[in-house]
Hints:
Blueprint: E1 2-11, E2 15-25, E3 28-33, H1 40-47, E4 55-60, E5 63-64, H2 70-73, E6 76-79, H3 91-102, H4 107-116, H5 132-143, E7 150-154, H6 162-175, E8 180-185, E9 197-202, E10 205-210, H7 212-219, E11 223-229, H8 230-239, E12 241-248, E13 251-257, E14 267-268, H9 273-288
Parallel strand pairs: 3-8, 3-9, 6-7, 7-8
Antiparallel strand pairs: 1-2, 1-4, 4-5, 9-10, 11-13, 11-14, 12-13
Helix pairs in contact: 3-4, 7-9
Amino acid sequence: MLELRAVTKRYGKDLKAVDGVTLSLGRGVVGLIGHNGAGKSTLMAMIATLARPSSGQILFEGADIVRRPEAIRGRLGYLPQDFGVYPNLSALEFMQYFAALKGVRDGARIRRLLELVNLHEQAQRPAASFSGGMRRRLGIAQALLNDPDILVVDEPTAGLDPEERLRFRNLLGELGLGKLVILSTHIVSDVESIATELAVMRSGRLVAHETPDAILARARGQVWSASVAEADYGALRERVRVLQAQRQDGRMLLRIAHPELPCLGARAAEPSLEEALMAQRYALQAEAA
Length: 289
C-alpha cells in the first residue's frame, strides 16, 4: 500500500532529519518508535504531503505522492501532534466545517464519528472547553471524515491521563483492523498492545522494522533480573546496562540488559517490549564501538 524508498530530508547542508529511510507498509497498526528528535514527525509530515523529501520516493499504490500529492490526499487522514480547535465552534460545528473542507456532505457520518470517539453527548459544547483527551478524540474524528485508507497520527497520547491514553489506544487498535494506521510515539506502552509492526528510528535512520514478537524473541536471554547488595550496585552499574533499579530492604532489585550472565544470582527474565528495544539499542551501540 505505502512504500518509502531511500527517503531523506535535509535542513541546510549538514543536518539530515531523515536519512535514507526505506520501508514498505500494508494494513494494520505500525508503531513508529524513537526518541524525541529521531525524525518521526518529519517522516510523517512527508507521508502526509505537508513536507517534501530532499531525495527519495514515497509511493502510494504505485503513485509517486511527492510528484502527485493528490494521489493520496483524498484517502489520507492526519492528526498532527499539535492539534488546535476553533474556540467559537462546538464539536459538531467543528466537524461540519472540516467535512465541508473535505467535500463530505453526509451529516449522518459526522454523528457516527462523534459516537465512535464517545463525544456525541458533548457535540454542542464549545470544542475549546474540551480536555486534552477529548480534543485528541475530536482530532481523530475529523481525520476519519473522508473514510481514509491511511491514518497518520503523531504522538497522540502526549499529555493525556492514563484513562484517556487507554481509550485512545483501544480506538486506534480497532481502526487498524481495516486501515493502515501509522502511530508515532516515544512511549513504547502506547503501541505495545496494538501494533502489528514496529519501525524504530534513531538519529533520522530506520534501525529496525519487524513485529513486536520478533523483537521480544531476540531479546530473550539478554534481559536479567537480579538482587544485589547496595554496596555492590555501583561497581555492577559500571559494567552492565541497568534498565531498572529499586531499593528494598537494603538491597537493589535490578533489571539488566546484558548478552551473558551479568552477576552471580542473576536470572533470565521475560522482557517487556520497552526492555527489548533498550536491549537492542545497547547491542547496536556495542557493535558500533
